[in-house]
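Archive entry. Fields below.
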Amino acid sequence: MTDVVVVGSGPGGLHAAARLLEAGLRVVLLDFGNRDERYAPLIPRQPFSDLRRSDPAQHRYLLGDHFEGIPFGPVRVGAQLTPPRMHILADAPERQPVDAPDFSASMSLARGGLGAGWSAGVFPFSDDELDGMGFRVADLQPHYDAVAERIGVAGNHDDLERFLPPSPSMMPALELDSNAEVVWQRYQRARATLNARGFFLGQTRLAVCTRSHRGRGPYGYLDLDYWADPDRAVYRPQWTLDELLPAAGFTYLDRRFVRQFTERDGHVLVEAEDAASGAVEQHEARALVLAAGTFATARIVLRSLDRYDTAVPFVCNEYAYVPTLNLGMLGHPARDRRASLAQLTAMVQLEQPRRRVIQAQLFSYRSLLTFKLMKELPLPGRQSLRILRVLMPNFAILGIHHEDRPTPGKACVLRRGRDGAPDRLEITYRPTADEQAVQHADERLLLRFFRSLGCIPLKAIRPGHGSSIHYAGTFPITPHDTPLTCDRDGRLRGTRAVYLADGSVFPWLPPKGLTFNIMANADRVGLQLARALR
Amino acid sequence: MLGLCGLSTITPLPLATFAVRPRFVLSSAAVVPEPQADPATLEARLFARYLVGRVPPPDLVERYRDASRTIWGGGAAPAEDALLTFVHRHPWAVGPLDAATSLLRPGGLLRSRILTMAAILEASPAFADDFLPRSVSKGALAWQILASGAAASLQALIGLVLLPLARRARA
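PREDICTED_STRUCTURE:
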């Protein structure tokens, strides 16, 4: 028997495990652990434009050996996943079947989980945004700081600090690309007016090492972020796994698919299938930390507690892309040295009818390839190509996240599989008309601000429900002692020693990236559990 | 913080780059139908010529053949097949039909196959520069948009007339 079994090597599992190991506990981490071994070794460490002009094997990783990198049809959820990243979603649809006619549920059985494709945005929540969880930023701040040190965070001391408290270990921000630099300069000129109207702009805080840190980085500005992880400068949870592997007391078991848990005689028994042999194993521990990802954790919990056919809530940030024409870039050269990651983050502070923020991030477009944009234009291919080549340096793409709160139209239910078939998770996601009206109004407001910065919106693209890939809220932390919720420490009510450390515990989602908060909360859960077990 | 290091300069492009070339309004007229070539080979050459004005080397033609087998191995609807057959016989029609389908059937087979050839060309060093973004002056940008827009409109007009005929073409 071990002290703690942790399920999942995503952002939650590894940061909980790191804390438990620091406390001297024995940890077994069960993980399916898919990895890309086909494409990653092919990608040279070269700037994107050099690679494109010189590498004869580029078609393999740009398009995929089975041409899986050529998308057809409308923009869909996960459209930015390139062949070297597609392993992140592999095997999940077969092992974790979902019925979700109006929602795209992305689940991962990869080493690093969905975090293996994280866009690296770091957005700690505020007191308003932790509302209902029974703790405040002051409680989470040491964990934000610990995680920031572990993963490496780069950022600036700028106008975003009123929304995102600084981290003591923050590294210098990435250099802006040409597109963002033009927008930034315009913002500086109009800053006082825009701030007075509640609009603030700053450099996106990113989990990227801009200097050498824990054997990673510094970031090389190769513009390969959608394709590869050069120098491991951009954080992936598997870098933390690599650090933990040699630790005393740590056992990593991959190719394990966890089905359920039971509690008996003060211990937790975890049932897992060895995917290589098909054998079913039992792992015994004093406590269990579930961090398999919101939907996978829901499946395990509902099955283990025999709560089939019981609806649990969930939330997911709605997401829209808005390509804009950055007028300030017209006629200006674009630097080749750049990053594909978010450049700038805009926050708008609203006070009425309630205090909240709306948020957008600004990206440039290049390394996801031109042909993918060609299909979006209602023009013949030849003309699309000619126009896009000269327009692309002037495109500033806004990614807008919307907050999401539980409503009766958003729920998931586990249905028992028949005749040996796996259980199926039914996901319903129907936001109310009021919610959608607020989202559209928020988008209009943000776009008005960006127009004043010279960015003319061309088209709003809504890839559909689920497109943010931020899922949460199935077993929320709440002070109220109700079934299928978690207490302040992340312990699942109705269990003695089962803790949740992924998105499941966040009762609602502010319009910000969730991943960094999952890590910090997992660090907190790990620390609380370590104290309880010692 | 931001130095000039790595700045790519605005390259003045030769005027010819921006010219609307009449032969490409009825594009790929220079491609002579090759009855002896298999359909995928013919398409690869035709679409490359249409997109970037050059014939692809044999390895890219083979890659297109491979993509066709992998992606469309199961065949297509008769109307879609008829459109492709028409284009095989009348290479000059690819531009107008692409323009018309971009408006009426953006997810159709002809457009998907052109997109696939574009992807294959883009992912090859020899054609990378035909796809990499290029910074140009405001005047050149305006002219490129106007010229391409005019060419696209003309092609769409011809294509909209041609499309019903092409869909009825016999194999």
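CURATOR_NOTE: Chain A has one domain: 2-533.
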